[in-house]
Amino acid sequence: MSVAPATDWTDRMLELTVGPVAHGGHCVARAGGDGRPADDGRVVFVRHALPGERVRAVVTEDPGGAFCRADTVEVLTASPDRVEPACVWAGPGGCGGCDFQHATPAAQRALKADVLREQLARLAAPAAATAAVRFDEVVVEELPGGPLGWRTRVRLAVDDDGVPGLRAHRSHDVCEIRDCPLVPGGALEPVLERRFRPGSEVDVTVVGGTASSAGGSRVDATARIGAGSTVHAAGRTWELSAGTFWQVHPALPDTLAGVVGDWAAVPRGGVAWDLYGGVGLLGSVLARQVGPDGTVLVVESSPSAVADGAAALADLGQVEFVRGRAEREIGRLRPDPDVVVTDPPRTGLGRAAVRALAARRPRRIVHVGCDPAALARDLALFAGAGYRVTRLRAFDAFPMTHHMEAVALLEPLE
Ligand SMILES: C[S@@+](CC[C@H](N)C(=O)[O-])C[C@H]1O[C@@H](n2cnc3c(N)ncnc32)[C@H](O)[C@@H]1O
């Protein structure tokens, strides 16, 4: 039973036995056993802890309801999965970017798999009932390149003195970092030496590590601010304008392209849609499958992504970019699709888009999701619309953080 507190717990020190990991980069514990029976049972979301540990944690946020948030300040009994974080900011009161630096990379992937399984169990029961795969057996696969030096795009926050850094967890404060170990070797340093307009944000693109050299030429990386970049994936090259979407992990574009290549199986001369298609990374794979007599419609809302994608895929006459909101375009696109790829932002597809898509009756839908809760909700909606999950994979595309990327193949139930 959860107990709402009579007083604000902020800054209170708790001694906790840490329970399972939960979605959002923290574990669940219950207050109690410290001589204050009235507090017993209150849920505490505790950061920088691991399941099974005994920790002392300070309450950082108390919204006043059934739960509060805390951060570990002392580990009394450590998990065997615990390691020393690579960054001094990856701890209590520190940067909000990394949630799991205190765990081995294998343990991080196990934590993410637990979260994905739990979200699927809670939110996707109708999909589990018809799926050809077991949701409780899904794993989170490692990508090449290791847990550090993978982040090719970083948003810096600028403090009141004009100093750039990384945003502190759930705060407006800025951590004045000297470097970030997730960014290829030293690439951020020249940017961090500069001063910017107080209160602004600085988008940094790291140039030099490419998808094909994810584990290799990182030392050559240099950071560029607000500039475009050249990227390579799926055997092609894109010139990206500043602000155009590209996957942050250098190995993810080729990984997703590989999965789409395996699962989409669009017939030659057929029709495929790439919804939320960015610059047409996955559309280029579909174009190869349909061949010159087929049709690939890439639907994307960002004008710069459409312009960059159309330029990069200009040699593929079967590809057409449609600038617009995918949810609206689903009902209007012609011709009907054999196969659809969907890769929406974190919020997922939602009820209206899933219904509209199912009404177009594609033979296969390859759905990419970067939030396990949104993915689970969308899979449940697809189950209600007559589609079953026949394949499911997940990837650790954001090591050290709680984020992950998952891909599901959906096929009609009958
Ligand atoms: C997760 S990215 C995927 C891009 C692409 N599949 C890739 O892997 O490079 C999502 C894309 O959807 C676009 N987007 C966001 N909301 C949209 C909407 N309502 N309709 C169409 N595109 C949208 C974003 O600009 C972004 O390019």
Summarize this entry quickly.
The strands form four sheets. An eight-stranded mixed β-sheet has the order 6-19-20-18-17-14-15-16, sandwiched between helices. The chain has a five-stranded mixed β-barrel with strand order 1-2-3-5-4. It has a five-stranded antiparallel β-sheet with strand order 9-8-7-10-11. The protein has helices at residues 105-123, 125-130, 189-192, 252-263, 281-290, 303-312, 326-329, 351-359, 372-384; strands at residues 13-22, 26-30, 43-47, 54-61, 67-77, 140-142, 153-158, 164-167, 174-175, 201-207, 222-225, 229-233, 236-240, 271-275, 295-300, 319-323, 339-342, 364-369, 387-396, 405-412. It is globular and about 70 Å long.
Describe this structure in words.
With 414 residues, the protein is α/β, with parallel strands linked by helices. It has 3 domains: 13-82, Beta Barrel (OB fold (Dihydrolipoamide Acetyltransferase, E2P)); 107-145 and 249-412, Rossmann fold (3-Layer(aba) Sandwich); 153-227, no CATH class. Helix content is 21%, strand content 29%. The protein is built from 9 helices and 20 strands. The strands form 4 sheets. Strands 6-19-20-18-17-14-15-16 form an 8-stranded mixed beta sheet, sandwiched between helices. The two termini are 43 Å apart. The structure holds S-adenosylmethionine (SAM).
